[in-house]
Design a protein that fits this description.
Elements (H helix, E strand, L loop, with lengths): L9 E10 L4 E8 L5 E8 L3 E6 L6 E8 L4 E5 L2 E3 L6 H13 L2 E11 L10 E10 L12 E5 L1 H10 L5 H13 L3
Parallel strand pairs: 4-9
Antiparallel strand pairs: 1-2, 2-3, 4-7, 5-6, 5-10, 8-9
Helix pairs in contact: 2-3
């Protein structure tokens, strides 16, 4: 294993800048590998889960949802925030049911991504859900979304033409491409 000591930054002071309902902003003073000091501001995030729901015909259950920071609707896989101490698989099952009304007979953990390593501690656990059974969605108050189905090829085309830009969805499509190579 390679020695990374020449790259490591060490925290020497920490200050909470903002505590919100979801996000917490921290400003730390760190000692750099050369002994000098620098400031690091970052968002502490509780983590999340993304589910890739595959219908029996091979199509993918997706959501269209308005995202306020960009003032537009995005196409994305179902996902949601981990509650404190919640198991990622339990979160995935909960989010799939709440947002889509579906449950799944088969679950497989694919991996974890760190979507923005420069300024947030968020990590997203990715699960594949198959053997879907339809039911009634149980959206949270104030949550609005539209369910659509897409073929894998449509998602790849959308990424390549720039119409699909959600990072976790792009990562999910990568996983699908690896799992279902022709």
């Amino acid at each position: 294993m390679k020695d990374d000591a020449h790259l490591i930054e060490t925290g020497i002071a920490s200050e909470n800048v903002f505590d919100g309902a979801l996000l917490h902003i921290t400003r730390d003073t760190v000692r750099l590998p050369d002994g000098s000091e620098a400031t690091r501001e970052f968002i502490k995030h509780p983590g999340a889960v993304m589910v890739i729901p595959v219908l029996d015909d091979g199509s993918l259950l997706m959501e269209r949802q308005f995202r306020y920071p960009f003032n537009r609707v995005f196409l994305e896989f179902p996902a949601g925030k981990l509650d404190a101490g919640e198991d990622p698989l339990a979160c995935g099952k909960r989010e799939l049911l709440e947002e889509t009304g579906y449950t799944a007979k088969h679950w497989k953990k694919l991996g974890v991504i760190h979507p923005i390593i420069s300024y947030t501690s968020e990590e997203i656990h990715i699960f594949l859900a198959e053997g879907l059974v339809a039911g009634d969605a149980q959206l949270d108050e104030g949550e609005f979304l539209e369910l659509v189905t897409k073929r894998r090829e449509e998602l790849v085309s959308g990424i390549l033409d720039g119409s699909i830009t959600d990072g976790k969805t792009v990562a999910g499509v990568f996983w699908l491409e690896q799992l279902f190579k022709a």
